[in-house]
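ENTRY TYPE: paired fold submission
RECORD: A
CONTENT: sequence, then structure tokens
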Amino acid sequence: MAIKTIVVGVDLGESGHRAMQLAIPTAQATRATLWLVHASEVGLEHAWRDLPLGARSAAQALRERLKGRFQNSLQELESERQRCEDLGLSCQSSCEEGRPWETILRTAVSVNADLIAVGDPVGAIGLPERLLGSTAERVVRQAPCSVLVSCGRLRDDYTGARIAVGVDFSVHGIEAVRWARDVANGIDGEVALLYVVPHPITEIIMPREWQTVLEGLASAGRSRLDQLIVSEGLKPNTTVHVLDGPIGKTLCNATAELNADLLFVGCRGEGRLRGMMLGSASQYCLRYSPVPVLTVRP
């Protein structure tokens, strides 16, 4: 796929470092421009007039601390930008006050980004995060383009990497296949197509006739995967795997068993509550994938 602009969410910590580990080689391979985005803590300017007189001295001290942090963030971000330019990359940076996901999304829209790279969402375990999602999850749900999330195990070099792709034959799933095809061609990698026949039934309570139904669905899925390899111009060494079970969990388990280095999935941008009630495969993969996840939008 043509990637000209990559927006990177940089928190100047471990999560941002992991996002940069993926964004830099992607930019090097595609000659894309990097936009490094950092969201700093919101200051007190807007609430200053409403503060009581007795609280103004304490608020002023806090404001100075926040200003100091903001200046430190600017310096660290400039160092990151300079490091990218030293590697021969075109790179811009911006540091704004506000919520991280809003800042990232706003920048992605303003620069017409082709890809967003963000850090690992693991660690968002509080009630607000469970209801609303981590920064990575919020970005994925609302992004105007595909999002690369630095989940799980990272490689120093992705040359020859194996890419697992969740295929459901939707528009989003087909686009994920195309991304995998193009990325694999660029890194001399290989692609494994994973089709999951979804069902919530466990082996203990599985009706006798269900095995026959599964075999029929699996056969039809395998045939469509073979056709997809030809129609989308994938390499002859592309492998197909037809599985059954909960989609997100099955994709993550298969990715680990295949020792894949990347997982690509289509993303419809479901709302958080809808995902909690119905189950979102991409949402599950962000939480539990053993490797980085690319959530693909058409």
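RECORD: B
CONTENT: sequence, then structure tokens
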Amino acid sequence: METTYEKDGKYLGRLADVFGDPTRRGVYRHLREAADPVTATEVAEVFGLHRTVARAHLERLCELGLVESGTRRRAGGGRPAKTYVHTGERLEVMLPPRRYEMLSRTLLHLIEDSMEADAAAAAAFSLGRTFGEETAAEIAGDNVQRPVALAPKAVLAWMDGAGYGVSLGNSAPGKVVLEVHNCVYRELSEEFPDIVCRLDLGIVCGMLGVDEAVHTQTHQLSRGDGMCRHEFRL
């Protein structure tokens, strides 16, 4: 969901009211990261709430169109349980509205039309890696010798703050697994995966200070998977 400027501010007022509650923000993040629809009872257990309170939070999120409801059959029969799931819509508020996505799409079309696919993908990765290295250096500070290789948790913190909805997956010794549930370039990555996804991978490799050869990707949002799953051998 993209929200731009509204003269009367009614939607922004509702938005502030809904997300002004820290518990409701937590419930929204929980649904955004959940693999399957959840019930009010399940949300109540996670957050230590009464079921009716959890349901009230979920219904407020439904009012904004960020969550939708459905039903799930109960194992023992009887009335189906009401479930809630994140709609996958993006919430973006800008005052006044910006048109960066339109500009990005135009530039990506230009790259796609003027460069060979392999060259465009390589250039995107290189640009991403440079940005990742510069970001890692800023995070590490002036007293750390270059090049900087951030710890996985530091990369996770940066990505989480940037809105990726990322978590550390189960991994074997010597391997780090990053699971991304919210691609911040989602619409563009679906149209230009060979460029956008390569740029994104370059950023992470640059922050970790690793070569692409140590990376394996098993899931990809732009191809219809429920997440992007990146494995790095460190």
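NOTES ON RECORD B: Strands lie at 2-3, 38-39, 67-72, 81-86, 92-93, 166-168, 175-180, 215-219, 228-233. The chain has two domains: 2-93, 100-233.
STATUS: closed
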